[in-house]
Amino acid sequence: xxxxxxxxxxxxxILGAYITKAGYEIDLINRNEEHVKALNEIGAQIIxxxxxxxxxxxxxxxxxxxxxxxxxxxTKQKHNKEIVxxxxxxxxxxxxxxxxxxxxxxxxxxxxxxxxxxxxxxMSWGATFHGKGISELTSEPxxxxxxxxxxxxxxxxxxxxxxxxxxxxxxxxxxxxNNFTGARWAKLMxxxxxxxxxxxxxxNFGEIAKNKExxxxxxxxxxxxxxxxxxxxxxxxxxxxxxxxxxxxxxNKFKRYISLMLIPLAMKKHRLIKSSMLRDLKEGxxxxxxxxxxxxxxxxxxxxxxxxxxxxxxxxxHLIEDNKLKSSWxxxxxxx
Length: 336
Prior knowledge:
Number of strands: 12
Number of domains: 2
Largest sheet: 8 strands, mixed
CATH architecture of the largest domain: 3-Layer(aba) Sandwich
Strand order of the largest sheet: 5-2-1-6-7-8-11-12
Oligomer: single chain
Number of helices: 13
Radius of gyration: 19 Å
Strand content: 15-25%
Shape: globular
Order of helices and strands: EHEHEEEEHEHEEEEHEHHHHHHHH
């Protein structure tokens, strides 16, 4: 089975290392030639919550020659149309592209190659890219934390779909979701709250959960997401076994207080994660904020639900992208 990770950056490098370590063959594909060179010469150097070096095979997109049965798509989704179109010559008749990106990316992939060649997967763990073959795992290194939720988007080939599940299972627990849209929204809620706040404050998830002011904003952002899913008739699936709606939805001050107290506990295993959008900003690139908080706003408009905090997060990030603001705790004032 020919498999590649397209966009083997922070998380893709770690996933590729785990899969290779388990005895599978997989290509790590990345445009960063310096990173690819280090991966081939030294190996994938995993640091942080776990440390090991794993020999891997890495190539740049220009070096792709063979056709793939499976591609795990782990780039930012801003350029999905162009990227997926570029991969068409390297797909077989029944190949699968599994998008492991943030937001709700399946449609943008399926618009190019069709639903039957598209499936999706969410990852509930984090990593930081250091370059030159080095990636830092920022979540606890156990199977209960390094989790995946995967679902079909169309009539996918069962053999290929099940092989993806097998590959991911070499790193952590895998849940096959019948209601994959609900699983996507569970992850999107956390991303909108914590990645959104991380990029405007330059803080990690643990700092956001600890600070009373940012924690309240996080809860209110999640609440907006919950109201959108209610209006859209979307049943939100549990995330790592936890029912987000039951734990974090509220309709009175007492329930809100309880939800606020639960947030630091819920984020404990992921407290060192920082939004990868901060790296985009550092390198002068546009972020994928429109695919995260912007997606909540878009669905809010669709279902007639106000999403003022998500709207403000998007606006603040665009100001940071345009160098009119810097990521700082002081940006919380703009959310008031």
